[in-house]
Every structure is written in structure tokens, then in C-alpha cells.
Structure prediction request, 318 residues.
Amino acid sequence: MSAPIKLILDLDTGIDDALALAYALGSPEVELAAVVCSYGNVTVDTATRNTLALLRLLGHPEVPVYRGADRALDAKAAFEPPAGVVRIHGENGLGGQELSGWCYAAPRNGVDYLAGALDAASEDLRYVPTGPLTNLALALRATSADASALPRATFMGGALTVPGNVTPCAEANIRNDPEAADAVLRSGLPTRMIGLDVTHQVVLTRAETACWRALGTPAGRFFADMTDHYIGIYETNNPHMGGCALHDPLAVAAAIDPSLVGCHAANLRVDLDGATRGRTVCDPDRLRDAQKNCEVALTVDAPRFLEGFLARVERALA
Ligand code: BDR
Ligand code: CA
Prediction:
């Protein structure tokens, strides 16, 4: 039997981050080494509390949880989610479903933990941020390692060939800290971008959440109710999609099995000014460089992903 894939998640724990966590815990080839928390869908404190509570609900309280950055690189104050985001993920980030029984985060700062973990990393480490890239940008500043020699980060964020979801140009995770994303994409770190180009192609419906409820477990009921809240938002905002997009779980899936997505190799940067702030775009200055640092996912085997998603999440909820 081959050695398990070591996974570090970096979550701004709202609803699809919770689904990504369940996906990871239900993946037999994965050992979840730690979760670093971020702000975005909620504050970093709420993300940390949600992660701890979800790990207990899913039977894995032993996984260490680290509190990361509370704001974007250039922000003066700690991040508070705007009203539109509160509506999507609910006041508590979990669709308003209450969870009790959380315990305490590890005392070490999430950025220090991440810098140490990347420095010490071997080939079998997969790091998957599904919120803003602030923790990663700070960790890269903190390590003396050559970024190009570090393990690839598979991040959920950005939009190369499709419009954004918070502005016509920008996707939410990148828009929450464009400077951090730009620094990561220019650092030489190998990355794989799982953006709206592919995450809007993988959709979950109420038929599947009904199966989770029918499991009859507390986790099954919780995840069904939480996800139905998210699907309800999509029914109002994006009725043409017929369900909710599985942004963050697809990033975890593509980190474990890159063959699920088809990628275009490119050197990206992020627009930092004006109306296009937060847009991910090919960097004209590095267009002819032979070395490309980012694999941008543009196609996805949606049926295969969805089949694996349902099997893995069901295993985590049973
Ligand atoms: C991304 O933004 C967050 O709201 C979601 O959790 C996901 O990571 C989608 O744009
Ligand atoms: Ca997220």
C-alpha cells in the first residue's frame, strides 16, 4: 500500500469549505495533517471555531487547527464579512445550523505553522487554500526556501475565461486579498488554479442532500440542512445553474487527483487597481517565459468528480 497523501487545508470555513473538509476526511488515500484558518466567508475566529466544531462532528477532533491571518496584507482592520456574504453562508458561516462542542485551536500561529510545514515538506504534501491567499503570502515571506522548490499549492480562486462572482472581473477569494494572490503568483511557487472556469461546472442538487439526510446521522442531517441553505441562495442568485457550485471540494479533489481537471500552463498576475481589481490574468511580461508556474484548470470531468464527491462525503457523514 502506498504512503498516504499528507494534506494541509487552509479554509475560510463557510459552507463549501465545510464540504471540502468532509471530502478530505472521507478520502481513504489522505491523511489530514492540519487545517489553517483564514477570514473571508466569516471572520478568522468564526472560521477557526467552525473548523473545530466540524472536525468533532465528523469524528476527527485530533486534527490540529491553527488560526491564521485576520485581514488582508494591506488592511488596517480585521476582516468582517459584508452583508452579501453573510446572506450566502449565514450569520455563523454554516447556513445558520448550530454546532456545539468545539474546543481550542492549537496555540501556534497558522502562518508560522504553514511556513514550517512548507519548509519541511516532502513530495507527498498537498496544500489546498480555499480562501484568500494571505496565509500563504505571509508564509512565503517567512521562509528562506526557494519558492520554486516548494510543493505545489492547489488553490480555489480566480477566473481566467469566465466573469467573476463578486465583480464582473473578480472571484471572491482573490478579491479579498489581491496583493497576497499577486505575490503568490509571482513568487515562483508551483500552483494549480481551480477557479470559476471549472467550479461552475460541478453542481450539487437537493436530491443529493436528501440522501445525506436519509443516512440518519447527526452529521448527515447537519450537512444536508447547511447545504440546502447554500442551494437556496443559488436558486435565487443563479437559477440557471440548477444547484450550488462545489468550489472548494473541487480544489481538494484536484489536489488529490490532478487528472480530474485539464489545465493550461501560464504565468498569472492579479490586477491591483481600478475596476478590474482582483482579476486573474496572464502576465504579459512573462508570456514568453519557458517556465510556467501555474496550471490553470479549464476543463473538468464533472461526472467523475461528482461520483467521487458523493462517495467520499457520504463516507465522512456515515
Ligand atoms: C469561493 O469564495 C468563497 O465564498 C467560497 O467558500 C469559495 O472558496 C468562491 O468564489
Ligand atoms: Ca472558501
